[in-house]
Amino acid sequence: MKVYEYEKLEKATENFSQSRLIGKGSHGCVYKGILEDGEIIAVKKQSLGLQKIQDNSKLENEVSVLSSLSKNSFIVNFLGMSHHDDDSSKKETFLIMEYLPNGTLYQMLHAQNNILPNWPKRAQIAIQVSKSIQFLHHAKPNSIVHRDIKSANILFDSNWNAKLADLGLALRMKNDCEKHDEDDSPSHPSNSVTRPAGTIGYLDPAYTKPSKLSTKNDVFSFGVLLFEIMSSRKAIDVSKSPVSIVDWATKLIKEGRALEICDKRMHVPWYMEATIKNMLSIATRCVSQKKIARPSIEEVVREMENVIIEPIKYPLWNILRGLTLLKRKRKRCKKKCSIITTTNVTKTCAQHEGKVEIDMSSRRKLLIREILADKFTD
């Protein structure tokens, strides 16, 4: 693990200037830094509250977790750390990470002036986040529970790929995670004194005490995030009723109105309807009140790859499917026409057949324009 000189970080961030502040949370602030060689980095510094009580535990925990992981394209890249001892005998810890220039998923979904992600992009983001969680749950020697999956902790690199960040609350489990999910046994003696933590709205309601720590806690949070990605509605919004996105979305799904969850500012193309419904179905299972009814993150990733990736990766397949259905409609029309013997009815049917032919041609052009426009629009 690389150790950075504090003086170089101070210079890189212009003495942690407010103009370099790019992120802020309850545990720390993140600053953009430019090193002497031109490398751009992100430097995480303790919040003022934690500095006052000299609590380095969150950043040191994040350093411990990140340094134990191999590099992964779905997790923010950890570069190193730094320490600083000031004149008052206070010791500060700094976390250095790769700089991700395109903000957070929260900003993308909720900022007024942002260009909204299209539906294929939303599905891609969901898959990338699910794979980041899968990577943590498959960590060796034991699974890691993030405990704070939310849109504000999803960052975008220069290519607009999503990466999971902020592992300050993450905990490593000792017992086998699958066994733990089934019997709710304590996960680790050291975790037994670690109180439940997370963000209201995303936090698993079943995570009421330390012994309830489970990988299924992250699965619940991911389900909330899926609803947020699809609707662009905040996890908790006191201006709406119900205030909880989970209560609102699950009610609509039970009433057979799943597509009403979709962001009203974005048209839903017909070829994305099945994909969106599949994602909402996954989200519903993830937020089940019973942990045993929730899928594992492996099941989530597998289902997404089976029912979501292919239609997005090969959108022309959807065009061919639509044209095939129209072709079958034509054949049914011809079959009906063939049993009619009167001249007038035959003419009428022929006219109808011609109309189907024209409609199909128009529909083909419309579908191609619609899909290409949605596919390549940011």
- Which structural class do you get from the secondary structure elements? alpha+beta
User: Spans of 5+ residues with little confidence (pLDDT < 50)?
Assistant: 182-190
Task: Calculate the terminal CA-CA distance, rounded to whole Å.
Answer: 37 Å
Question: What is the typical, i.e. mean, pLDDT?
Answer: 82
**Which range best describes the helical content: under 10%, 10-25%, 25-40%, 40-55%, 55-70% or over 70%?**
40-55%
Oligomer state equals single chain
Strand line-up across the major sheet: 1-5-6-4-3-2
Number of helices: 12
What characterizes the major β-sheet?
Answer: 6 strands, mixed
- The percentage of residues in β strands lies in 5-15%
Please give the radius of gyration in angstroms: 26 Å
Order of helices and strands: EHEEEHHEEHHEEEEHHHHHHH
What's the total number of strands? Answer: 10
Shape: globular
Family: Belongs to the protein kinase superfamily.
Domain Protein kinase: 16-309
Keywords: ATP-binding, Kinase, Nucleotide-binding, Serine/threonine-protein kinase, Transferase
Pfam family, one: Pkinase
Structure description:
Belongs to the protein kinase superfamily. GO terms for molecular function: ATP binding; protein serine/threonine kinase activity. InterPro entries: Kinase-like_dom_sf, Prot_kinase_dom, Protein_kinase_ATP_BS, Ser/Thr_kinase_AS. 45% of the residues lie in helices and 12% in strands. The protein contains twelve helices and ten strands. Strands 1-5-6-4-3-2 form a six-stranded mixed beta sheet, sandwiched between helices. Strands 7-10 form a two-stranded antiparallel sheet. It has a two-stranded antiparallel sheet with strand order 8-9. Strand 2 and strand 3 form a beta hairpin. It starts with a strand and ends with a helix. 33% of the residues are buried.
